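Researcher: We're teaching a course module on how sequence relates to structure. For the next exercise, students receive a sequence and then see the predicted structure as C-alpha cells, so they can try to spot secondary structure elements on their own. Here is the exercise chain.
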Amino acid sequence: MNTFYKWNVIGQIRTALLDGINFGVTILAETGAMDRFVCGVLAFALLGCDAAGSGFRGVEPVTRHVDGSRFTLRFRGDLVEAIRTSPEMLPKFEAVARKAARAAEAERAGCETAWVEGDPAMMLLGLACYGGKAPRKPKRRNMLSCDFQTLTGGNLYPAGTVECSKL
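Model: And here is the predicted structure for the students to work with:
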C-alpha cells in the first residue's frame, strides 16, 4: 500500500471522526442535554472510587456500615484496605479511622486494630489477631508541601517562586 494513500485514508477517518464528535456535541448543546451528558461522564469517571489499591487487586471486597459510614474492606492477611464510600462533610481522620477499625474488627473475629495509616477516604489498617504481632507499617513516601511565594507575568506564561518543605 502506498504510504501517501495510507496517510490520506487515516486523515479522512480522523476528519470523519472529529466531524461526528462535533455534530454530537452540537446536538447535545442545542437540545439542552449537555448538562446530563457532562453529569453522565463525571458519574462514569467516579465509578472507580472504591477500586482496590496496589497490593489489593483481585481481593474480594466486603462492605460494612458503621455509625452512618459505609466502607469497602479488602483483607490481605493482617493488612486491611478500608475505603470510605459514603459521602460525609469534612470528616475528621480520627473519627473515620475508629469506624474503619470497628468495621475491620467486626469482619475478623479475634483481631484488634494496631495501627491506621492514610486519610479519611482511604486507610490501611494493621490487625493483631489472636494476640499475635501486627504487621509493620508501610514505609511512607517522601512528600512535599509547596506554596507559591510570588506569581508574576501574563496568563500565557506566568512565572514565580515556589517554596517546598518535606512533610
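Model: If you want an answer key for the exercise: Residues 31 and 130 are 62 Å apart (CA to CA). Confidence is low (pLDDT under 50) at residues 1-6.
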